[in-house]
Amino acid sequence: MNLTDLYRLLGAQGCEDVLRHFPVRYESLLPCGNLKDPHDHERFVLRGYPFQVKSVNARGTSIIRFKIKSDLRNIPAILFNQPFYLGKLYKGEELLFVLTYVEARKAYVVSSIHDSESYFAQTGIRPLYSLPKGISQNYFSSYLRKILLPGGEGDYVVSPLPKKYVEKYRLLPERDAFLAVHFPRTTEELRKGLRVFKYEEALSYSIRSLRLRKIAQSRKKKVSTTIDHKKINGKIKSLPYRLTHDQIQAIREIVLDMEKETVMYRLLQGDVGTGKTIVSLLALYANALRGRQGVLMAPTYELSHQHYENALSFFQGTGYKVAFLASGSQLKAKEKREILEGIKDGSIALLVSTHAALSEKISFQDLGLSIIDEQQLFGVRQRDQLLQKGDSDLLMVTATPIPRTLSQIVNSDLDVSTLEQYPFGKRNVKTKVVRSTDPLIHQAIQKCLEVGRQVFVVAPKIEGDEKKASATTIYNDMVERYGEEECQLLHGRIKKEEQKEIYARFLSGEKKILVATTIVEVGIDVSRAALLLVYDANCFGLSSLHQLRGRIGRSGDFALALLIYDGNDKESQDKLDFLSTCDDGFQISEYDLRMRGSGSYSGEKQSGQSELQVCNFVTDSNIFFAAKQDAQEILRDPTDKENALYLSTLPKEGTNLI
After folding, report:
1. In whole angstroms, what is the distance from residue 263 CA to residue 224 CA?
2. Residue 322: what are its φ and ψ, rounded to 5°?
């Protein structure tokens, strides 16, 4: 591989872009493990000499069997699909092995081999990178070393930070920090190196959030209007149930925002079942009272249609007209034309839709409120498109809530309303982690069928291989066991009209078992659903699993969620075990943020900007809070020479608010 290919595959413009391709994790190469009493899937690191090396190729799989002579004993080892290690093994010299004991094979499966005198073997810390196909870990490390050698290009890399913050926090010089991160000699040195780049990311993130907030606050409405609070209170009193204090507070915050001269830019967050939908409908009612149009946009046809049905019921008798327009709705040309005309002339007060609301064909007479449900599933450009359709307040809704202290960091460019109370009490849902051979799976399905309850079965992919369960394979198995009259298959490749029919049959109770992909994560509300099976549950994020769990037990009766996992990865097992003992969406989101490090929680990935690579919203919250204060200081005096130079290194913000 040449440097041109390396830079192209990494999307790098210069050596600093390569240096900022940070490790995703670090592997300990310090000797560990008790060879006298190995446990299944226990990890070992040991030094030894390979002998009795035998290499075969079985059905396209390279298998190398050999023995390792260590200080304690000779142990049997296996290498799969790593024939490039043969040269090292045949030399018979001392090597460092990273391996896992597999009880079923009575042998140690080797994941990597290192020269015993190599740099990483000596330090005991090996960085691991996520690299495009064609770039090996060793090649990438060797090129990083070349950049960072004295006299190399790394000598010219300087910190983008204002000098006062480098001194304030006693941060390492930039080149030293890169060395510490890519070639750490000790864990303390690594910590100091990462601290530099964590602060850089936190400060950049904070600057961006504060800029976006300033843009939002600068957007003025053409006309600000007051809203009849008495009518809103009357509508609340007419509801067949009482709202929680949180819901009342959220409605108050939203309405007061809508009355301001500046455009509302607010997030409504709450766990599954906390009543976000009725708050959204009341906000749309308040918007209609001031004589303006509203749009409620959801990511899927099923969820948007469910919102439409709820809106029809909610607005019945008010005189406000509600319309539904979504991809796959199969409207006749005349019906669609009438809806488009009604939106344009203002006779339609509320449009409920999917991404179809973004169409250039849709032109509002006076759009006053845009609500985006499951906002994390929409991209920045899509949200901005919606805002361009009118002088509109914006309310984003999410069922992936985070604690208030974290929200001050993640959502620092937003005003946030939080629902923590449950109007009808928490659902009675029990969660268990099981293996695919557990008899409980089919016992639970049979019990549901006997008592007339329904079952969700979720798989990570439509058609799979031997490694992952597929919806198609599971569906065929369910049909064989329980009959085609009880089962349905639902996934994104099925035509929208057929999806509607499948959904309707399940909603009516005609079909009892629905096998699907995560297309059912949001939007399907079936009160009789009492069992959820999630195959290869380790493939899903915690928040997604919690959302899927929200599909069952909606009637308040007992429900069971079975998370199926046949692997032995400790991190995956711990994640699923945590979910089995926790049903609090705030705790789950915090755990998810902690375990997956940074990420696109705030929508950064969707905006096309780089995600946080080394900083973590949870474990590095102190760094974020310090960086936020420093960001405010910088933006108070943007013409200061050092501040201006730093700000010039950051991506320019457009008009996007998210």
Report:
1. 9
2. -115, 135
The structure tokens 């999410």 sit at 398
Distance between CA atoms of 588 and 565, rounded to whole angstroms? 19
CA distance 135 to 120: 19
Task: Show the tokens assigned to 603.
Answer: 């929508």
Digit-coded pLDDT (tens) for 209-225: 888 888 878 888 888 88
Which residues fall within 8 angstroms of residue 458, CB to CB, at 6 or more apart? 471, 515, 516, 517, 518, 520, 532, 533, 534, 535, 548
pTM given for the model: 0.77
How far is it, in rounded angstroms, from Cα 413 to Cα 383? Answer: 15
Each residue's pLDDT tens digit, 424-468: 777 789 999 999 999 999 999 999 999 999 999 999 888 866 667
The answer to whether 193 and 178 are in contact (CB under 8 A) is yes
Distances (CA, A) of 299 to 94, 306, 489, 519: 57, 12, 20, 10
How far apart CA 136 and CA 176 sit, in angstroms, is: 24
Residue 318 φ then ψ, to 5°: -90, -20
CA distance linking residue 357 with residue 369, whole number of Å: 13
List the one residue out of 408, 400, 401, 402 whose CA is nearest residue 622. 408
3-class SS letters over 9-66: HHCCCCHHHHHCCCCCEEEECCCECCCCCCCCCCEEEEEEEEEEEEEEEECCEEEEEE
